[in-house]
Design a protein that fits this description.
Elements: E1 2-6, H1 14-23, H2 25-29, E2 33-36, H3 38-45, H4 56-75, E3 80-84, H5 92-98, H6 105-116, E4 121-126, H7 129-142, H8 150-158, H9 163-173, E5 178-183, H10 184-187, H11 191-199, H12 220-229, H13 249-267, E6 275-276
Parallel strand pairs: 1-3, 1-4, 2-3, 4-5, 5-6
Region (Disordered): 276-311
Biased composition (Basic and acidic residues): 293-303
Protein name: Sulfotransferase family protein
């Protein structure tokens, strides 16, 4: 049985992909593909496996627990086990505490590999850096964090860690694993095509009518309302509708340029570390976002998940 890891990232349509997978579980099982999503991995399966500072005995027991669960999946006759959990890279709060992108991705994935023994393929969906950080900040403010001070924003601009460094860490932690990178901007509304690129499945279950857009981020009016409910000052938020952009135009352009550099590096072969797949379906790729989901999203900072709006 081949193990395939979908690593996320957070704020890059991971929950939309997982929603699609869960709805297609029976059809995928018929093609020999099993799925573990957060509904499985965060119910204690990965507990103690990737936490920093875990005692050796705890980490070993956690690895054994994962190994036994994977062996049970193989005995059911599955050819592929697709494991999708963006917390394997870290959490949004940990990124913000460190003021950088997934600083512990390498050590966490090295620990995860102990549980599975080997991983055939890992898939990472990346997103333009100014949009990723903006979405993370909106997500965390909606969950109780205060609006960021200018010093925090300046620090995020000053640090230079980008997707290229994350990809290098992932490749080093998973030697011998094929690493596939997909851009959020191309695949966010096509979880069916992401599944096809991830697993090579011949038949992709159809998307539900209207598509899937789960765990979306709060808009400016929603953020203002949340801050008002908490008795916090929302006056520093810009007026108007739409998405909150905490960066100035110059700062956003700087982050966007770094993302373009990362994509250029990937298109040039990524030093042999990863393969970039950009076009989900050349002739028919959707250019329209599906309507917003009415369901509240999952908290990516814990095992069990506190329900709240996000995306």
């Amino acid at each position: 049985m081949d193990i395939i890891l979908h690593l996320g990232a957070h704020r890059a349509a991971s929950t939309s992909f997982q929603t699609y997978l869960r709805g297609a579980d029976a059809q995928l099982a018929g093609q020999g593909i099993g799925v573990w999503g957060p509904w499985r991995t965060r119910k204690g399966l990965f507990h103690g496996l990737m936490e920093p500072g875990a005692r050796p005995g705890d980490a070993e027991r956690a690895a054994g627990r994962v190994r036994l669960a994977a062996e049970a999946a193989a005995r059911r006759g599955l050819a592929v086990l697709l494991v999708s959990d963006e917390n394997t890279l870290g959490t949004p709060r940990a990124c913000l505490r460190a003021r950088k992108l997934y600083p512990a991705a390498g050590p966490r994935l090295a620990q995860l590999l102990r549980g599975f023994g080997s991983v055939e393929r890992a898939v990472l969906q990346i997103r333009s850096s100014e949009m990723w950080w903006a979405s993370v900040l909106a997500h965390l403010v909606a969950r109780g964090m205060a609006l960021p001070e200018p010093g925090l924003i300046d620090h995020l601009i000053a640090q230079r860690r980008g997707w290229r460094e994350v990809i290098a860490d992932v490749a080093a932690a998973l030697p011998g694993t094929e690493l596939l990178v997909t851009p959020f901007e191309r695949f966010a509304s096509r979880p069916d095509q992401l599944l096809k690129r991830t697993t090579g499945v011949l038949f992709t279950p159809p998307l539900p009518s209207g598509g899937i857009w789960a765990h979306r981020g709060p808009s400016l009016p929603e953020l203002r309302a949340l801050l008002d409910e908490r008795g916090e000052d929302a006056s520093s938020l810009p007026a108007g509708e739409g998405r909150w952009m905490p960066f100035t135009p110059v700062q956003a352009a700087d982050l966007r340029e770094r993302y373009a550099d990362d994509l250029f590096w990937l298109r040039a072969g990524a030093d042999g570390l990863a393969r970039l797949t950009e076009d989900p379906e050349p002739a028919t790729a959707s250019t329209n976002w599906p309507p917003a989901s009415k369901e509240r999203g999952r908290d990516d900072d814990g095992q069990t998940g506190r329900l709240a709006h996000s995306g």
